[in-house]
Design brief:
10 strands, about 160 residues, seven-stranded mixed sheet, about 10% helix, globular, mainly beta, 3 helices, binds zinc ion, Metal Binding Protein, Guanine Nucleotide Exchange Factor, Chain A
Amino acid sequence: MQEIADVGFDVGLEMAELETVGACLCGAVRFTIRGPLRNVLACHCSQCRKSSGHFWAATAAARDAFTFQSDDGLSWFQSSKEAKRGFCSNCGSSLFWSHSGKDTLSVSAGVLEKPTHLIFGGHIFCDDASDYYPVDVDEGIFETTSAGPCGSKNT
Ligand SMILES: [Zn+2]
Ligand SMILES: [Zn+2]
């Protein structure tokens, strides 16, 4: 496990060779991501919940690290003023989150082929979580929200 845990932080030459493969459920959207990926964050905001069906677990990489082998099914929904979400219009897979002010693209961790070499990084917007599951604060809470830091369990 230690070997894997070190990968995300030690971005050396080996990581530059790393390529991660991703695809939607039906295969109409297929892509590769070159190089290292951000640790996985679980976002509990209402937009991520509605778009994914639960909370959304995503990693991210520089936009130019993505190469599409097929984007036939890829559609975008403008989910807020600055952000849009990419999904497959054929099978419905929730795939991407793109913010106009960021040079990275977030991608659903679950659509990436194993081994992903990903590490779970923690929870964000947990005070916006739904009421049927606890957020495991022991897994790390990473980010404050507009309402302030979220520190207490499932409140
Ligand atoms: Zn699809
Ligand atoms: Zn979110």
